[in-house]
Specification:
about 35% strand; 8 strands; homodimer; two-stranded antiparallel sheet
Chain lengths: ~180, ~180
């Protein structure tokens, strides 16, 4: 990391897949500003200095009225020359969240629809995006076999230089079975 | 993603853990510009428009002389007010790579040491960073039980708006076992 100059090249967007484990449903929206009516997870751009999980929780609340808490990171998309990023690159991260409330009061400026949808239905429908589809299938596997199979958990660690903390996301594996 | 303005807030750094599966060794370096002599994976900042995997392969070659190819994404660190990023945020990603060549010709401007080190030793030593340690333990599990347990694989998908492609990193699970 020695050959500077360093500069920011990416904007970061985060979406939250809020999964209700008791019903197998997930919170999805349809954006107002898109031509095709595709179900997707609520989300938006990170504010400067905002943690990934905090963006997911905030955007879900703003768009849907549902309060939630961060569980894990599920997928990352990197896209260059993103149309909304003025030629810069875009990192788009999907997190798994757990609901704290269930009543929907969605933002009519941003969304035309908002529902708790069966994960199995979301995994199969064509009215969604390729990424949402893949993450829905991941989440379905999580519901069936445990989210430990799909989660990148978060660990907060001290940053030596700045005296602050950083967040590390990785698969926290169970101890291996020894005969 | 409707409430703009959008702007770049993050620099992206990528390190490559080159694992030689036939020997259980991994390629590590010690940076010239750090006070503590800690083993870490070679890496550096992404160039504008450069894919995560391409950065890892390029930085490994520049620092160590070893050619490699991208396999998977393993972990992500988010850090705000990174000391080398002028108050911006830093996303630091570690990838798994496979070696194509094995001879080391390391860059003496950037590194003081460069070795193929036993993964088991790297997972236990105190002469390393907290992140390297955790990723070494993940890789050790991968060696023992298959990298399918730890990998976020990459899938390239078409971007509808721009006509380009994007890269999606997520756990590509095997089909579930049905009785």
């Amino acid at each position: 990391r020695s050959r500077l100059p360093a500069f920011a090249t990416h904007q970061v967007g985060v979406a939250g897949a809020v999964v209700d484990e008791s019903t197998g449903k997930v919170l999805v929206v349809q954006d107002r500003n898109k031509t095709k009516n595709a179900w997707k997870f609520p989300g938006g751009l990170s504010d400067p200095g905002e943690n990934i999980g905090a963006t997911a929780v905030r955007e879900v609340l703003e768009e849907t009225g549902v309060r939630s808490e961060f569980r894990s990171l599920l997928s990352i998309r990197q896209q260059h020359q993103h149309p909304n990023a003025f030629g810069m690159s875009d990192m788009y991260i999907i997190c798994r969240l757990s609901p704290l409330t269930y009543d929907i009061h969605f933002c009519t400026q941003e969304c035309v629809r908002c529902e708790w949808l069966d994960l199995a239905e979301l995994a199969q429908t064509h009215s969604t995006t390729p990424i949402t589809s893949r993450v829905a299938r991941l989440l379905l596997r999580g519901l069936e076999s445990g989210f430990g199979h799909i989660d990148l958990g978060m660990e907060e660690l001290p940053a030596v230089y700045s005296g602050t903390v950083y967040q590390l996301y990785y698969r926290q594996l169970p101890p291996p079975l020894r005969p």
